[in-house]
Design a protein that fits this description.
This protein is mostly helical and 497 residues long. The chain is built from 19 helices and 8 strands. Helix 2 runs antiparallel to helix 5 and helix 5 packs antiparallel against helix 6. The longest helix has 26 residues. The N terminus is likely disordered.
């Protein structure tokens, strides 16, 4: 798993918590291995980011390699793979075993125990949250007739194959699973140290836990809690929003300066490669602006509606009618976020405008850290919950202030502009729509758009590229592992699979 320290397990196929996790080094190695799981191409290495964009209205498949085309077309079964399920529960069991081993170790200080437990609880909550996003509905946006519940919650370690064969969990109510997620993130927050920057953001921290609590409570529509945790996170982190002058550099840095938690790819052995990395999925470029050197395939490019929101006008083909033509940028608005979208090379076919957020750090192709949550999103969460009709924390003045905090750091001419004047006068529905639009622009190609539609119960309108996918369509949920369903009469498969 990328860690030189290995768990001392004998035999390798049978993990006995009584002997495998009997030292501080073993616990440290176990935690490192759990972090490493999230680097899989099926998780944050690609699918949780790129597949989510392909399923949404943000991405269009170029068919330069055939990858991500079924997902962009929302074909039945072309969604998040069951590897999220298998990897999730494999990691959760390792987390549970490690949590159970810590109190049994001799010579462990309270500081060490808190650091370990805080990270493990954070990673367990993150695992359950990502599985719930893929396989279940989200509170307040449920098709009742199709609801098969959440995902099984397991908080005890499974040590033997014999026990695993007799363990037949069911799918609890959706709210129950989200309660477990909130409880784990909350306890993690209490145990973890304060905020982190740079390489330290690859480990769970108090700021990361608070940011995730803001996101989870946004999903569950507990707006007062979402605001409370967003307030706390912003207070804790301080001023970390990039400016118009530093925005692009943030995406070229080894560690994104806005990141509160990232998945770090540290060594060449962790390179996902030219087939499935985020770089190859999004771009043909090797370095910014150099269209003479081809690297990846550029399997997924921005839709015409996203380009319009980004303020990019084209010359050439990016719509269905002229997609076979090469595309270049005719004009840009003053939004600096559109500067990380640029024409690719013609090395894989006609050039398209591509996303270069994950263009590889330090010149190493297909190797880049992946921010899981950034401070900009926390501002947008707080803005959204205060601009949502019927919210218990409805406050248009404060929502506007957070919106302007983002826009003044993204548009070079925002202050005093007609855009700011319009924002100042916006009634609640218009203000909410603008916050939601800014969320699309800010988090484009970072894996959030599909779930934003899902948590609000909205149809996926993918014109002009693809057909609309109704929220009531069974394709909104991914299938859970059929082998687990076949072997467990208590586990119900999602409708349509």
């Amino acid at each position: 798993m990328s860690c030189k320290k290995q768990l001392e397990i004998a035999p390798r196929q049978s993990i006995d918590a009584a002997t495998a996790l009997n030292s501080k080094d073993a616990v440290e190695a176990s935690i490192t291995a759990i972090y490493a799981r999230f680097k899989s191409a099926r998780l944050y290495g690609r699918d949780l980011i790129a597949v989510a964009e392909a399923l949404s209205d943000n991405g269009v498949a170029t068919n330069k390699s055939g990858r991500l085309l079924p997902e962009a077309q929302n074909n039945q079964g072309a969604t998040f793979t069951t590897a999220i399920w298998t990897s999730g529960y494999g990691g959760i069991n390792q987390i549970n075993l490690t949590l159970e081993a810590i109190p049994k170790l001799a010579g462990v200080t309270s500081v060490e125990a808190d650091r370990w437990q805080g990270q493990l609880l954070f990673l367990r909550a993150l695992s359950y949250f990502e599985m719930m996003k893929a396989y279940a509905y989200i509170p307040g946006a449920v098709v009742t007739a199709q609801d098969r519940g959440g995902v099984p919650v397991i908080t005890k370690g499974i040590q033997t194959a014999d026990f695993a064969l007799t363990f037949l969990p069911s799918r609890p109510p959706i709210d129950d699973v989200y309660k477990q997620i909130v409880d784990d993130f909350t306890l993690a927050n209490a145990k973890l140290l304060n905020t982190a920057t740079g390489v330290a953001t690859s480990l769970a921290s108090k700021a990361a836990a608070q940011a995730m609590l803001a996101r989870v409570n946004l999903y569950t529509k507990n707006y007062s809690e979402a605001k409370r945790w967003a307030d706390s996170c912003i207070t804790l982190v301080g001023s970390r929003l990039s400016t118009t002058g530093s925005y692009v550099a943030g995406w070229r840095a080894e560690h994104h300066p806005e990141a509160l938690f990232q998945i770090r790819f540290a060594t060449a052995t962790e390179n996902i490669g030219v087939n499935e990395s985020l770089q190859t999925s999004y771009s043909t470029l090797v370095t910014p602006g150099n269209t003479t050197a081809t690297g990846g395939f550029g399997d997924l490019v921005p839709s015409i509606t996203l380009l319009n929101d980004l303020g990019i006008a084209l010359t050439g083909g990016m719509t269905i009618a002229n997609f076979s033509l090469p595309a270049s940028i005719a004009t840009r608005t003053t939004d600096v976020r559109n500067l990380v979208f640029e024409p690719g090379t013609s090395g894989r076919g006609n050039a398209k405008v591509e996303c270069t957020k994950f263009l590889g750090r330090s010149g190493v192709i297909n190797l880049d850290n992946v921010p899981v949550i950034r401070i900009a999103e926390v501002y947008l969460i707080r803005a959204e919950v205060q601009a949502t009709a019927g919210s218990s924390v409805l406050n248009l003045t404060n929502a506007l202030a957070d919106l302007k905090a983002i826009k003044s750091r993204r548009y070079t001419d925002y202050t005093g502009s007609a855009q700011e004047i319009a924002d100042n006068a916006a009634p609640q529905p218009v203000l909410f729509d603008e916050i939601f639009r800014q969320r699309r622009i800010e988090l484009a190609f970072e894996g959030q758009r599909f779930f934003d539609f899902k948590r609000l119960g909205r149809d996926l309108v993918k014109a002009p590229h693809y057909n609309t996918v109704a929220f009531t369509d069974t394709r909104i949920l991914a299938p859970i592992l059929q082998g687990d369903v076949d072997g467990n009469p208590n586990l119900k498969q999602n409708l349509g699979y």
